[in-house]
């Protein structure tokens, strides 16, 4: 039976503090959070079918993209990247993901 998981995360550490002030560290922490949640549901990042990346500054795109490709080096999920204002001061990136588990 196939299940799906919808996950949304930002760059907070498990202790509730924000990971670094820069896009690179926040993107890494956000993707680590997503990875942990997908794995807790019995999947892997290979099960992620779609992501939406929200960043606050167009100038951060290349740095965010470099981190993204480290987590999805082959057969990456479909994705959209948008430039937005995030609700919490200091956040540089928010990522939502849809994973299909049990393929």
UniProtKB/TrEMBL annotation:
GO terms for molecular function: deaminase activity. One of its GO terms (cellular component) is cytosol. It comes from the Bacteria. Belongs to the RutC family. This is RidA family protein. It comes from Elioraea tepida.
């Amino acid at each position: 039976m196939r299940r799906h998981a919808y996950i949304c995360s930002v760059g907070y550490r498990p202790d509730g503090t924000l990971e670094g002030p820069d896009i690179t560290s926040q993107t890494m922490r956000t993707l680590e959070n997503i990875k942990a949640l997908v794995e807790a549901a019995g999947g892997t990042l290979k099960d992620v079918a779609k992501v939406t990346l929200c960043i606050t500054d167009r100038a951060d795109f290349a740095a965010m993209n470099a981190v993204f490709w480290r987590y999805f080096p082959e057969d990456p999920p479909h994705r959209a990247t948008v430039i937005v204002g995030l609700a919490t001061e200091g956040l540089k990136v928010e990522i939502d993901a849809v994973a299909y588990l049990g393929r």
